[in-house]
Amino acid sequence: MAGLALFIPMYNCGKQIERVLNSLEPSVRLHFSEILILDNGSSDNGPQTVRQWIATNQLVNVSFEINSENLGFGGSHKKAFSRFIDRGHDYCLVLHGDDQASIRDFLPLLRDKEFQHWDHVLGSRFSWQSRLVNYSKIRVLGNVFFNALASVLKRRLISDLGGSGLNIYSLNRLEEMNYLSFPNDLTFHTSFLLDALTKRNRYRFVPISWREYDQISNVRIYSQSLNLLRTLTKDFVKNLRSK
């Protein structure tokens, strides 16, 4: 079963997951050979909402699972990627269940199969064409700083180091990169991106819309900043030693 799979990670986003699922109209679902919704141990009504949506729409290629324990942001991605690789999929589109990103921003790429020209297509919240709604100015400045720092260190343009909630990954490339060694926490995407750049994967950043209304962020600004700095430092030292 080759093609493009869709992975929706969710955690305590019962208020938002219904909006995300409703954005997956029949014409959108046709782009995916398999859809996996993976809950990381939510304590709200999100799981019930997903089960009802699947039953109401009588969907056969949509699976819903709940992790037996909290695997972390990266851990859930690893589980989904491993599943799709085992099933022979080529690409995986990740759409977070908190409704901060919109799959509509990627629909032109899906219709024209343009994503197949790249190893990875990454949604960018901080390109000049991106659209931010109700996003903290402090967090914008922090992200811009780390994007600039990473761009200097890697000598490549990086407009979203931390990773948005909308990305397409080449599963073949991820397997070559040993994605299972990446952290299970929120720096999973950062570690992936730095390794992808080191291995000269072909990637493209696409401006997306990003909104915060009723979402509750799991990101702690100061701890995440320290984690990003540690990840960048570790990558820099690793590359120096390899030269």
Care to count the β-strands? 9
Number of helices: 9
What low-confidence regions span 5 or more consecutive residues with pLDDT below 50?
none
Query: Radius of gyration from the CA trace?
Result: 17 Å
SSE class: alpha/beta
- Helix share, percent: 40-55%
Query: Which band does the percent of strand residues land in?
Result: 15-25%
What sort of overall outline do the alpha carbons produce when their principal axes are compared? Answer: globular
> Mean pLDDT across all residues, rounded?
93
Order of strands in the sheet with most strands: 3-2-1-4-7-5-8
Distance between the termini: 40 Å
What is the H/E string? EHHEHEHEHEEHEHHEEH
Main sheet overview? 7 strands, mixed
Question: Which labels suit this protein?
Answer:
single chain; 243 residues; alpha/beta; 7-stranded mixed sheet; two-stranded parallel ribbon; 9 helices; globular
Describe the overall structure.
The protein is α/β, with parallel strands linked by helices. It is 42% helix and 18% strand. It contains nine helices and nine strands. The chain has helices spanning 14-22, 26-29, 46-57, 72-86, 107-111, 137-154, 171-176, 188-198, 221-242, and strands at residues 4-10, 34-39, 62-66, 91-95, 120-124, 131-133, 166-170, 203-207, 209-211. The strands form two sheets. The chain has a seven-stranded mixed beta sheet with strand order 3-2-1-4-7-5-8, sandwiched between helices. Helix 1 runs parallel beside helix 3 and helix 6 (137-154) runs parallel beside helix 9 (221-242). The radius of gyration is 17 Å and the shape is globular. The N and C termini lie far apart (40 Å). The mean pLDDT is 93.
